[in-house]
Description:
The chain has helices at about 1-20, 35-50, 55-65, 70-85, 140-185, 215-230; strands at about 90-100, 105-110, 115-125, 130-135. It has a 4-stranded antiparallel beta sheet with strand order 1-2-3-4. The protein is of the alpha+beta class. It is about 50% helix and about 15% strand. The protein has 6 helices and 4 strands; from the N terminus they run ααααββββαα.
Amino acid sequence: xxxxxxxxxxxxxxxxxxxxxxxxxxxxxxxxxxxxxxxxxxxxxxxxxxxxxxxxxxxxxxxxxxxxxxxxxxxxxxxxxxxxxxxxxxxxxxxxxxxxxxxxxxxxxxxxxxxxxxxxxxxxxxxxxxxxxxxxxxxxxxxxxxxxxxxxxxxxxxxxxxxxxxxxxxxxxxxxxxxxxxxxxxxxxxxxxxxxxxxxxxxxxxxxxxxxxxxxxxxxxxxxxxxxxxxxxxxxxxxxxxxxxx
Length: 246
């Protein structure tokens, strides 16, 4: 086990030693151009930009547009947009070179009183012709964090707004049928109610009191009178009429 660990450590140290023994970029040959040649080109471009006035920049843009030189035209337009934000030119900084495949890139630092810039030149390694030149503003770590936070907040805000919009659309699917039914009910023709026919009054039937037999009543009254007179029969008087007393 210890032998394996020692072997792994030895291999790591060997790889680090090989990486540290890389060729010095200032002494390399870049397809016929040296580091000093690349640096001279970058420094000439970087030092010439702060010397141009706005009128000279406009004249230069118009001049190079006639010849279709999009690289210089793009560089001068970019410098015109950001020159007011970087302040006064101070000095040139270090230049770095990086090769990747068929592309060679140089980065020249430019020191300003307001904000530093990086002039980046991209070469086609096959013919060492410049294909692109850009100016990039150098931000501090705090500014980068602030910008990242703002981008995050904007992204989250956009997501929440879309979710709220989707929720409203889904809720609208429930409201739309109700509104449609309400509109149909409003536009439907109103049916007139049939007139109510007056009902005829129900005749009240008065029950007639049962009529009593007058003959029997007369006989009872006559017997009562005869009894009160001490007679055996009611021969001496005649009952003509009977009136009911209230």
